[in-house]
Amino acid sequence: MPDEALSTPDPLGPTAAPTPDSGASQSDTYGQRPDGAEFQVIGTGGPAVLLLPGGAESVDGFFPGLVEGLTAVPGCRVILHDRPGTGANTTAGTLAGASDALHAALRRHEIGPVVVIGQSLGGAVAALLAHDHPEDVIGLVLLDPSAVNDVAFAKKTEQGVRRLAKLSRIPIVRGLIAAQLTSIGRRMAKDHGLRPEIRLALFKNATADLGMTSRAAAGLADIAATFDETRLPRVPAAVVTADREPGAPIRQAHARLATALDVPLLQWPDSTHSVHLTHPDEVLDTCRIVIRDAAAFMEDRANNG
After folding, report:
1. CATH number of the domain that 275 lies in?
2. What is the DSSP string of 44-63?
3. Residue 9 lies in a domain
4. Strand (E) positions, the chain?
5. Which of 7, 20, 44, 205 has its CA at a distance of 20 to 30 angstroms from the CA of residue 215?
6. Distance (Å, rounded) from C-alpha 182 to C-alpha 9?
7. How many domains does the chain have?
8. Looking at the domain assignment, is residue 6 inside a domain?
């Protein structure tokens, strides 16, 4: 992370990170893994749910309140795991190898099939896992996913992140980028009246390691060139797009994913790319619906063969 950003006071407000001494609840810490835990499952029953954060971020704290909300209702097992090359996982990894790496991790821990919830690049990886290993996926929630099915937009995404990563090597520019991102986060927190734990997640996003993000997104356009929407399994699903004009290329890519999955494209007023933060209650409700439908789908499949 940029050193300057780490030394900057929280620009989203005076809220401090919760600590056990301050009476923080489980929802305040939102699913932090014990130190050294490579793969943690929270919850003891119900469908298995795999969370895939955007960029190269760690799953810890990326979806505030979602772990606790889902384990409470409808009751499920939430998997906290950083794929290789992202978060706290020091194993080298690429986007091209992401689906195989997740497939291997699920097999290694003998869990699955799973409902996969992914945002941004995590949404693209969720779609890739369903595309490459449909037997691993019983449900999908794609939250404003990166354009895994649009070559031109995928190229723009790669180029943009690569350019930012290159600029961030210059200390003064790195500080300016962090300041701009935190300013956007501050406005977002004010406009949407975000809860303290969500404000903290926004600040964490603003101080992301852009070099790591660029490496995590490398190869997106090549993958998009061979991505076949018709290979996506027909499982309970939801595709959410940010509040954009109907003709926006990324919205059209999301619409094609929704069509392939035979579900309506969801869009909520004033939602942003970080829809899991600007509309956390709607995201939680949507995930609950998909998980319940996935559980019924699994039971029906087991009963009917």
Report:
1. 3.40.50.1820
2. SSS-EEEEE-STT--STTTS
3. no
4. 39-42, 48-52, 77-81, 114-119, 137-143, 237-241, 265-267
5. 7
6. 11
7. 1
8. no
Q: Which residue has the tokens 């903290």?
A: 200
Alpha carbon distance 262, 161 (integer Å): 31
pLDDT 10s per residue in the chain (305 long)? 333 322 233 333 333 333 333 333 333 333 445 555 689 999 988 999 999 999 999 999 999 999 999 999 999 999 999 999 999 999 999 999 999 999 999 999 999 999 999 999 999 999 999 999 999 999 999 999 999 999 999 999 999 999 999 999 999 988 888 888 888 888 888 888 988 899 888 888 778 899 999 999 999 999 999 999 999 999 999 999 999 999 999 999 999 999 999 999 999 999 999 999 999 999 999 999 999 999 999 888 888 86
**Cα dihedral 126/185/241/174 (nearest 10):** -60
Mapped onto helix, strand or coil, the DSSP state of residue 235 is coil
Question: Whole domain around residue 58: which residue ranges?
Answer: 15-304
41 residue type, one letter: V
pTM of the model: 0.87
Long-range contacts: 282-289, Cβ < 8 Å, 24+? 283/66, 283/141, 283/143, 283/240, 284/65, 284/66, 284/69, 284/70, 286/141, 286/238, 286/240, 287/49, 287/66, 287/70, 287/115, 287/117, 287/141, 287/238, 288/69, 288/70, 288/73, 288/74, 289/238
Residues in the chain: 305
